[in-house]
Specification:
The protein is of the alpha+beta class and about 200 residues long. It folds into 2 domains: about 80 residues, Glutaredoxin (3-Layer(aba) Sandwich); about 110 residues, Up-down Bundle (Glutathione S-transferase Yfyf (Class Pi), Chain A, domain 2), CATH 1.20.1050. The protein is about 55% helix and about 10% strand. The protein contains 8 helices and 4 strands; from the N terminus they run βαβαββαααααα. It has a 4-stranded mixed β-sheet, covered by helices on one side. Helix 4 packs parallel to helix 6. It is globular and about 50 Å long. The mean pLDDT is about 95.
């Protein structure tokens, strides 16, 4: 069975649990303390969260974990085949959800919850916020009036982006455009997402 080690309310681990639910795969979530303890670091020396175990496979990085699950246990509509016209776009937005969005939010989380009061609105934080807001506005324009980012069904791109936007609103405490707010609400109303959230 797939085992996902994650913080109790971790958005990155939610990506993998949500995909497992969409694919009707058995999985279990093991909570990780913050900061991770020595037992967890023995399991994953990088100390990053989430972390996946599946038989002999052990790996970190939530996007890689989603790609692994989709490819090993697919095919799935969530990841079109490489000869499908949507494939490249799905990969682009799936990676954008972490590399361009979530990873930049990590220092904002550190500032919000750890910086002294007089340093919470420092030059670096303001610059990162401005860049992220620009990216989020471009995502709003890309989505337009569609239900999903790429094509007519849910893909890894939607799971990746929606969980990144969850960090933006719930973790960083920022607002997002109404179009994207409605998009996230629709996705989080999916039975698979509800089940993934309920098991955490």
């Amino acid at each position: 069975m797939i085992k996902i080690h994650d913080f109790p309310h971790g958005a990155r681990g939610l990506r993998v649990a949500w995909l497992c639910e969409e694919m009707d795969l058995a999985y279990a979530v093991t909570p990780v303390s913050f900061p991770p303890d020595n037992d967890y670091r023995a399991l994953n020396p990088f100390g990053t969260v989430p972390f996946l175990q599946d038989g002999q496979v052990s790996m970190g990085e939530s996007i890689a974990m989603m790609l692994y699950v989709a490819q090993k246990y697919g095919p799935t509509d969530a990841l079109p085949l490489a000869d499908n016209g949507r494939y490249a776009k799905v990969l682009q937005f799936t990676l954008l959800g972490e590399a361009t969005l979530s990873s930049l939010m990590t220092p904002l989380l550190a500032v919000r919850f750890g910086a002294p009061s007089d340093q919470k609105r420092n030059w670096s934080a303001l610059g990162i916020e401005s860049r992220l807001k620009g990216t989020i506005d471009h995502l709003r324009d890309e989505l337009g009036d569609r239900d999903f980012l790429v094509g007519s069904s849910l893909t890894l791109a939607d799971i990746s982006i929606a969980t990144a936007l969850r960090i933006w609103t719930r973790g960083v405490g920022q607002e997002m455009p109404a179009t994207l707010r409605a998009y996230c609400e629709r996705l989080e109303d999916r039975p698979a997402c509800k089940r993934a959230l309920g098991g955490r």
